[in-house]
Specification:
Layout: E1 11-13, E2 19-21, E3 33-44, E4 47-56, H1 59-69, E5 75-78, H2 85-91, E6 98-100
Antiparallel strand pairs: 1-2, 3-4, 3-5, 4-6
C-alpha cells in the first residue's frame, strides 16, 4: 500500500482504492486517456520491472500524475499508445484519475 502522494495537487483516495485529484486542480486537466510506461526499481534477473498505467489527463499532466502515486525512485514516461473509444468507455475514469493496467 502506498502512502498518500505528496504533490502540488490535492489527492483523495476513493472508495475503490484509486487516487484522484480533487477540487479546483481538475479544471482544464482532462484531455483524454493517456498511456504511461513505468519502470520500477524492482529487478527481475537484473532487468527493471515494467508496468503500464493510464491517466485521465492531458499528455502534459499524465506523467506528473502517475509519478505522484508511484513509489519514489520509479520512472514514468508517455507510452505513446492509444486506447479505443470502447476501452475508454469501459474504464470509466474521472478527470485526474490514474490506474495501473493489469497484465
Amino acid at each position: 500500500m502506498w502512502a498518500r502522494p505528496s504533490s502540488v495537487y490535492d489527492f483523495e483516495l476513493s472508495h475503490d482504492g484509486l487516487w484522484t485529484i480533487s477540487g479546483s486542480a481538475t479544471k482544464g486537466l482532462f484531455a483524454g486517456i493517456q498511456v504511461v510506461h513505468v519502470t520500477t526499481d524492482d529487478l527481475v534477473r537484473g532487468v527493471p520491472n515494467k508496468q503500464l498505467w493510464i491517466a485521465a489527463a492531458s499528455p502534459d499532466q499524465a506523467v506528473e500524475l502517475v509519478l505522484a502515486v508511484i513509489p519514489e525512485g520509479w520512472a514514468a514516461r508517455l507510452a505513446g499508445g492509444n486506447l479505443t473509444t470502447g476501452e475508454v468507455e469501459l474504464l470509466k475514469l474521472r478527470p485526474g484519475e490514474v490506474r495501473e493496467l493489469a497484465e
